[in-house]
């Protein structure tokens, strides 16, 4: 088995390629893709890497992954109606989901058997900034966050009998909390939604029959008072200079479902929340300092490592995860290019 890591560099317009060998991170080179290349996602069969360009003309670039060398070879570009900030692929490897913050839209592109994207995307118009558009573990539901409206929307996924992503449920958060990214529990019965400006995680019970979400609790994802942070502000209200404010970004669940990891950019930390057996509500367990201004990070499929980039960092870092405490310890680092944005990990046989 070989493990390749890909890191998009928005300002440089490249994707950096790496290979992990034990606890070493080897820089293999950089692939030119285009200015403001940011979110990426790997196909479920690990054959292709899809990357979105956020500068007009907006498109998604499909790159073939060489399973022996990790080399990326561009296959094609599919025009998109908007600038996309997040990508996902459904569990059937049949649809690519995209979220547009700038243009308030979520889209679905059909994936052909050869990995090509359909030229015409199904668009779901929203009232606020869409920060994430993800699929449930059972592949039946689509969930979109609306940053500007402080809302999450649930849609019924497309199928042979359903050709429209019908809205089935909405939940409204506290004003200016800023729902951003989300993750489902391993069983699919709970959803954890990270709010950027409150740096909190909202825990929901998820009804797999109806797609409805019921709030169970809201927990602190980072100790704002201890870190010297005030509540964050939406982009339109931010001023310079200002007091340090919460600026949460990404959230991931460990392979064993025991720890939630959350990145906070102002203090450059990744915090961990522990989930105990029989209780879906996580509890804050600590944090670790990581790369400068961490936006995107990824966990390896075996659950042993975390890879993080920082928007103001000049490298990507590899951290080992302590199986008992969830604590991170840096093992290695490798250079990257300007404004690293998104991390993807691929394990190939």
From TrEMBL:
InterPro entries (alphabetical): Cycloisomerase_2, Haem_d1_sf, Lactonase_7-beta_prop, WD40/YVTN_repeat-like_dom_sf
The keyword Transport appears for this protein: no
The keyword Lipid biosynthesis is annotated on this UniProt entry: no
Key words, A-Z: Carbohydrate metabolism, Glucose metabolism
Matches recorded under Pfam families: Lactonase
Organism superkingdom: Bacteria
Family statement drawn from the similarity comment of this UniProt entry: Belongs to the cycloisomerase 2 family.
The name this protein goes by in its record: Lactonase family protein
Organism: Vibrio olivae
Lineage of producing organism: Bacteria, Pseudomonadati, Pseudomonadota, Gammaproteobacteria, Vibrionales
């Amino acid at each position: 088995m070989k493990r390749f890591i890909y890191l998009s560099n928005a300002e440089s317009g490249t994707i950096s390629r790496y290979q992990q060998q034990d606890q070493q991170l080897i820089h293999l080179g950089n692939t030119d893709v285009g200015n403001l290349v940011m979110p990426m996602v790997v196909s479920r069969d690990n054959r292709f890497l899809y990357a979105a360009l956020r500068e007009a003309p907006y498109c998604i670039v499909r790159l073939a992954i060489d399973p022996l060398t990790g080399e990326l070879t561009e296959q094609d570009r599919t025009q998109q109606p908007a600038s996309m900030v997040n990508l996902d692929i459904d569990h059937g490897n049949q649809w690519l989901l995209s979220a547009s913050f700038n243009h308030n839209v979520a889209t679905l592109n059909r994936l052909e058997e050869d990995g090509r994207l359909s030229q015409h995307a199904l668009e779901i118009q929203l009232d606020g900034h869409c920060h994430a558009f993800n699929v449930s573990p059972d592949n039946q539901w689509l969930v979109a966050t609306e940053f500007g409206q402080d809302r999450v929307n649930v849609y019924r996924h497309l199928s042979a009998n359903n050709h429209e992503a019908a809205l089935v449920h909405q939940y409204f958060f506290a004003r200016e909390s800023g729902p951003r990214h989300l993750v489902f529990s391993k069983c699919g019965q709970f959803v954890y939604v990270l709010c950027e400006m409150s740096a909190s995680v909202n825990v929901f019970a998820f009804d797999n029959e109806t797609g409805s979400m019921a709030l169970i609790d809201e927990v602190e994802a980072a100790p704002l008072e201890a870190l010297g942070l005030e509540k964050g502000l939406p982009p339109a209200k931010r001023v310079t200079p200002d007091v340090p404010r919460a600026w949460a970004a990404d959230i991931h669940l460990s392979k064993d479902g025991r720890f939630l990891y959350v990145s906070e950019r102002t203090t450059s930390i990744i915090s961990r929340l522990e989930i105990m057996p029989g209780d879906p509500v996580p509890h804050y367990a600590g944090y670790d300092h990581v790369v400068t201004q961490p936006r995107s990070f990824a966990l390896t499929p075996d659950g042993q490592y975390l890879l993080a980039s920082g928007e103001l960092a000049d490298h990507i870092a590899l951290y080992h995860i302590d199986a008992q405490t969830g604590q991170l310890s840096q093992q290695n680092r490798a250079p990257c290019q300007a404004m690293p944005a998104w991390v993807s990990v691929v394990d190939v046989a």
